[in-house]
Amino acid sequence: MNAASMQVRGLGAGYHGFSVLREIDLQAKPGITVIVGPNGAGKTTLLRALAGLMPRAGEVLLDGDALPANDATGCVRRGLALVAEGRQLFPQMTVTENLELGGWLQSPAERARRLKQAFDDFPRLRERAGQLAGTMSGGEQQMVAVARAMMSVPRLLMLDEPSLGLAPRMVAELLAIVTRIAREQGVTVLMVEQNVRKALQVADYGYVLERGRIVAQGDSRELLASDVIRRAYLGTA
Ligand code: ATP
């Protein structure tokens, strides 16, 4: 499967008539694209709008095909998956049950195939297949959330602050998993991260979102070295 490209033009979104995002233009090409920005900049709103979870203006194309606005199921059908902030697992269900829910649009045969693949990709989850998701550690829960999103056979995977609250070792492990998904499994990744340095180190391209607008963008290496990132996010300028 070829990795997908997403093109966003003139995206706007908000809540109760209050505008949060204005005229957002961005691209997620094969590989890893990271969006960084301060609290309240609109990063979560952007991913939710792209995933069809809320109304939006503007155009979102996946490999040239328009994605529906405010239609999450339609977006999943077209190959989009979101790992939401806070993981949103079903804590009283087992790991296997959580994963199977991620494949609800697939045929039973495809679902079984994807489940085996998930356990191959995340051996720790196979060991804990029958454990209630709510009793797992934060890092393990984040792995379930990523594996569940992969069950829908996405072409583009979006992750909202996947490293939030994880110990440094788990952050590294998680970013290694994301890297493998993008580079070996050919799934394009669009990720919001507060761990700016580590995220840009694994990414190809980055955007800085402030007060609902893109204020900087560039190759991740250039961004890491740029004044705007060093001063505002790394504290090293
Ligand atoms: P953080 O890093 O703190 O998660 P963020 O960049 O993801 O921030 P958003 O969560 O998208 O930012 O929030 C952007 C703005 O939209 C904020 O002003 C927030 O208060 C507002 N907002 C978010 N969710 C809602 C909601 N359900 N109803 C009304 N306003 C909301």
From TrEMBL:
Gene3D superfamilies, per database record: P-loop containing nucleotide triphosphate hydrolases (3.40.50.300)
Alphabetized Pfam families for the sequence: ABC_tran
GO molecular function: ATP binding
InterPro entries documented for this protein: AAA+_ATPase (IPR003593), ABC_transporter-like_ATP-bd (IPR003439), ABC_transporter-like_CS (IPR017871), BCAA_Transport_ATP-bd_LivF (IPR052156), P-loop_NTPase (IPR027417)
ABC transporter domain: residues covered: 6-236
SMART domains named among the record's database cross-references: AAA
PROSITE patterns, sorted: ABC_TRANSPORTER_1 (PS00211), ABC_TRANSPORTER_2 (PS50893)
Regions crossing the membrane: none
Record keywords: Amino-acid transport, ATP-binding, Cell membrane, Membrane, Nucleotide-binding, Transport
Domain of life from the UniProt record: Bacteria
Family: Belongs to the ABC transporter superfamily.
Official protein name in the record: ABC transporter ATP-binding protein
